[in-house]
Amino acid sequence: MAEELQHLIDKIKTEAVDKAEAEASRIVAEAKAKAAQIVKEAEANAASKLEKADKDSQAYTERSEKTLAQAARDVVLAVSQGVEKSVLGVLALNVEKSLTPELMQKLLLTLASGYAGKQATVSLSEEDSKKLASFITGEFQKKLGAGVVVQSDSGIFAGFRLSFENGKVSQEWTNAAIADALSAILRPALAKIVQQAVKG
Question: How far, in Å, are 15, 18, 104, 106, 185 from residue 26 at the CA level?
Fold first, then answer.
């Protein structure tokens, strides 16, 4: 009887140990599965965040490059406008200095042959009208072969305006008109120089 009892106790012990081991194995397996799931989710989350950070970084780089390119264009434009303004300012100043009374006399005589026989009005700055009045009413009028009116115009700083038929036909030889005509020719050349400088 003691033997049977011992056998029964051993059997209960073995079943309890087996059951405990099975339960422990199940708990360990569940814990491993849960840990694997947590690691998988963490890796997926990290990969997603890394991908988003990469996309954000790429978008930021593209925006920065576009902003830098726009800033470079703005600088080139500002510099080219400054250069153009300086060159045209120098041009206008040189045109004004070049329009001496002697040069204006030559221009007027050249124009007189093209408008022979037509009454003319010559508009000049107040200073130039004093210097050239006797030439215009003398030598110029003689070559023109018609009447001439000399008048001062406060809008003219250098040069002259020659008009016929009460202003219907006119020739602008003022510093502003000559500078405008020359600057129209120079602008494309200046633009080309600036573009070549940018390309390096």
Answer: 16, 12, 113, 116, 92
pLDDT tens digits, one per residue of 14-67: 776 677 677 767 877 776 778 678 778 767 776 788 788 778 778 777 786 777
Question: Is residue 108 within 8 Å of residue 191, measured between CB atoms?
Answer: no
Q: Can you give the length of the chain in residues?
A: 200
CA distance 82 to 95: 20
**Extents of the domains making up the chain:** 1-98, 99-185
- Give the separation between CA 140 and CA 148, rounded to whole angstroms: 9
Task: Confirm if 160 and 128 have CB atoms less than 8 A apart.
Answer: yes
pTM: 0.52
Looking at the structure, give the CATH architecture of the domain made up of residues 99-185. 2-Layer Sandwich (3.30)
Tokens 């690691």: give the residue.
Answer: 39
